[in-house]
Amino acid sequence: MTPALITMAVEQKSAEVTDWAARIGWVVGLLLFIAFVYWLMRQGWKWRGSLQSDLPELPTAPTAPSDAKLTMTGRYHGSTTAGQWLDRIVAHGLGTRSRAELTLTDAGLAVERPGAQDFFVPAAALREARLDKGIAGKVLAEGGLLIVTWAHGGKLIDSGFRSDHAAEQSEWVETLNNMINTTEGTAR
Question: Name one Pfam family in it (predicted).
Fold first, then answer.
């Protein structure tokens, strides 16, 4: 090598790889943006709850237990306004996903949710049961969700459940609809 090339190679410096001040600024800015978006989502959830504040308190299960017709363990995926599968109801904890244990008795449907508010649907309030593919925030294969339609506070509500054993959901639909038809037949 010639001395000129050696001198030129020694004098050249590579560019700085990282500008730490700029990188830290971008990371902090990104974290602030994510926190702001999360805060906006939380405010939207609270706003939806305040809009649905006219919904009365959820009924609780009767203290005198009756014989269980069916039981099921699985997941509660939420409740929506009946027929509008994207209009989530968040008032009184109905928007909170959780594990669930369902018990169907002659008195109605008891929904026990660890970590969330339990509720009870009286037999007279039950309107329909069907298998569907989705409810707000959860979409599965056709027939993957058990949807129970019930009346509460002058509003029809669809609640979505997914059994740990999907094969038993069709038995729930049949039993619930038979129970609803029997209840309507005796009410006339």
Answer: bPH_11
Q: What Rg do the C-alpha atoms of the chain give, in angstroms?
A: 28
Indicate the burial class of 75 (C-beta count within 10 angstroms; 0-12, 13-18, 19 or more): middle
pLDDT tens string 8-19:
666 666 666 678
Model confidence over 101-141: pLDDT tens digits?
999 998 899 999 998 889 999 989 999 999 988 888 777 77
Residue bearing tokens 């994207």 = 86
User: Nearest-CA neighbor of 142 among 131, 154, 157?
Assistant: 131
How far is the C-alpha of 141 from the C-alpha of 162, rounded, in Å?
11
Question: Among positive and negative, which fits the CA dihedral 26, 27, 28, 34?
Answer: positive
Measure CA of the first residue to CA of the last residue in the chain; give whole Å. 106
Burial 22-56 (b: 16+ CB within 10 A, else e): eeeeeeeeeeeeeeeeeeeeeeeeeeebeebeebe
